[in-house]
Amino acid sequence: MNLKDEIRGEAFNRLQSIFLAAPIGIGFLVNRVFAEVNPKFLEITGYSKDEVIGNSSLMLYPTKEEYDFVGDEKYRQIREKGSGSLETKWRKKDGTIIDILLSSTPFDPADHGKGVTFTALDITDRKLADNKVREKDIQFRKLSANVPDLIYQFTRSPDGKYTVPIASAGIINIFGCSPEDVTDDFGPIAKVIHPDDAARVFDDIENSAKDLSYFTCEFRVLLPGMPVQWILSKSTPERLPDGSVTWYGFNVNITNSKKSGEQLFKLSRAVEQSSNAIIITDITGTIEYANPAASELTGYANEELTGCNTRVLKSGEHTPEYYSHLWNTISSGKIWVGELRNRRKDGELYWQATTISPIINDRGEVVNYLAINKDVTLEKRMAAELNEAKERAEESDRLKSAFLANMSHEIRTPMNGILGFSNLLKEPGLTGDQQQEYIQIIEKSGARMLNIINDITEIAKIESGLMNINSTRTNINEQIDYVYNLFISEAEAKRILFLCKKPLFVKDTVINTDREKLLGILSNLVKNAIKFTSKGSIELGYTKGEEYLEFFVKDTGSGVPANRQKAIFERFVQADILNIKASQGAGLGLSISKAYVEMLGGKIWVESIEGKGSTFFFTLPLDKDKKSKGLSKNLKIDNNMEESIDKLKILIAEDDETSELLLEVGVRKICKEMLKTRSGIDAINICRSNPDIDLVFMDIQMPGMNGYEATRQIRTFNKDVVIIAQTAYGLSGDREKSIEAGCNDYISKPICISDLLTIIKKNLSHSK
């Protein structure tokens, strides 16, 4: 064997090995009859070699038409190109249809009858994959064609060029261009991005490309003939082998949601910043939302309210029927408007005006409730006070009308007795007993008239502020005895037991007070007790406290209705002006007594049960501290006190007209010249302009500058003038504050003129 034969033999062996081990089917056909096939062919078709060799290739084709088509097409390609390649379908032995890529080459291009070599590649899986890709591509194109938004593949090449290889039809809605416009050119998109947003958009793209971070960006676009549109772009980046970066994502027009968001933001801010308390609950009343005003109104923190039922705010002052009507209204889809009395976290009660609206879903179901609440506590209080003032005014008018009618009756009745029986005394033939009877009637009528005149005179003095206090050493037991003896016969005439209670020894019962006013108070109270008591007893007495004597007049009479127990101390008021017994009087006794008690530094009140009786109390201060306050009540003011004081130049600094008048009248006899002002600043200027002023009455509480500060400034240029502080407060420490400010002395309102003259004399003697 020569070398050529060896080479040929070796080449044949190699070809034989390739033929047998090839991963694709290989075979030889002569006149389309199988002459040889390799193992892979048998594996692909499922036939054995014996079943194939010598048989026509028609056995593999599912139809005669496919067989003929492949033969015609194969030989056509061989004629034109020298070889042929096409895709066809074979039927395996088990009947399975597979896709085959068939390639053929003739042994002799000049003589096809000598046979052809073919290769068969099973492409079934690839065809399935291609079909799926093609199907998905069709689905994607159909889907993207019907989506108004943009689905895209966006690429940044290594040289920084932007392109959009893939874009859905929605790009026309987003950027106003077609997919073809941006396949190789990003310009049509770049030019419609809002100039104020462009730099930020490209910076975000570059940052995403740099670190492959998720890209998300909101920006505006300007399209011809359209308002500004807001676009949201989101995509995921991927770095390609050539260094370019491609993003897969979408763009959405968010203009409407932006507007809705802005509206929602405004609405949210409006609710959050509303001065009204706004609460949203579920259908059971459990709170799901409460704005800051709701927390402020209720006293509960927001986190305390959320999840809590509105029952926590109930005050218990509304009836179950009230709440039932509320819930029936809102649960039926209607709006409830009303007022609620609720309780804050700290227990304080408050009023709120409330509107509760049901929130209804698309199916017509109530899903939530919206409550808008306004705190109307102040308005309710003001309305109540206004109504009370109106009622008081109406009551005052009613009482004054009744008083005038009563005055007419009270004056005409005794006058009728006086004039009528005076005329009867002129009648001839009267016996001595008849004359005495008529005279007694005239005397009683005159006394009754005198009492009325005295009451009117006293109340007039009190109303004008001209009532003086004349304090003297007064024995309380003696006054009790005097009143007892004055009224015992009247009580006995009605068969009423009249008792006295005098717990103190004689030496302990002397105090400084106005004796006549004390007698007036006791007389008025005992007189009323006798008038309104038809049987039982009356007790007159007092008890001693640490700082006050407490007087009382107790009776078993008709009593005072609870709603009249404060009113009876007002001018022209009686317990019941429609009561016949009550109308037998001017209705001034208790108001005069109240004024007297308050002028003497005490207070008066009543405890009464209607139908069982009343106890009237009043207090008078003991004088054990008077000496320490620079006021010697033990010193009796004689009638020559005013003559013992030289005529003075006096400044009255007082903003209250009545108090000013009282001072002016009280010191008129010791005054040679009087100056008056109603402000602290003017008081300073008057003292600076009048260095010869002897005495200054300085009211502590004045507008602009108070008396303390005015005194301090006066003392900077006049240290000799006598300054006496006066105040209506009478609080502990006032005297010390006045002396510290530079005042010589201090007196509290109500001012007793005799006390005032004593203070003036004392301080003027010290200043000389």
Give a short synopsis of this structure.
The protein is an alpha+beta fold. It is built from 22 helices and 27 strands. 41% of the residues lie in helices and 24% in strands.
CATH fold group of the largest domain: Heat Shock Protein 90
- For the largest sheet, list the strands in their spatial order: 2-1-5-4-3
Report the span from N to C terminus: 170 Å
The domain tally reads 6
- Tally the helices: what do you get? 22
Radius of gyration: 59 Å
Return residue spans where pLDDT drops below 50 for at least 5 consecutive residues: 575-585, 624-639
CATH superfamily of the largest domain: Histidine kinase-like ATPase, C-terminal domain
- How would you classify the quaternary structure? single chain
- The coarse silhouette is elongated
The description of the largest β-sheet is:
5 strands, antiparallel
Number of strands: 27
Give the fraction of residues assigned to helices.
40-55%
Kindly provide the name of the CATH class of the largest domain. Alpha Beta
Label the structural class.
alpha+beta
Commentary on this structure:
The chain is α+β, with helices and mostly antiparallel strands. It has 6 domains: 118 residues, PAS domain (Beta-Lactamase, 2-Layer Sandwich); 113 residues, Beta-Lactamase (2-Layer Sandwich), CATH 3.30.450.20; 102 residues, Beta-Lactamase (2-Layer Sandwich), CATH 3.30.450.20; 65 residues, Orthogonal Bundle (Helix Hairpins), CATH 1.10.287; 154 residues, 2-Layer Sandwich (Heat Shock Protein 90), CATH 3.30.565.10; 132 residues, Rossmann fold (3-Layer(aba) Sandwich). It contains 22 helices and 27 strands. It has a 5-stranded antiparallel sheet. About 4% of the residues have low confidence.
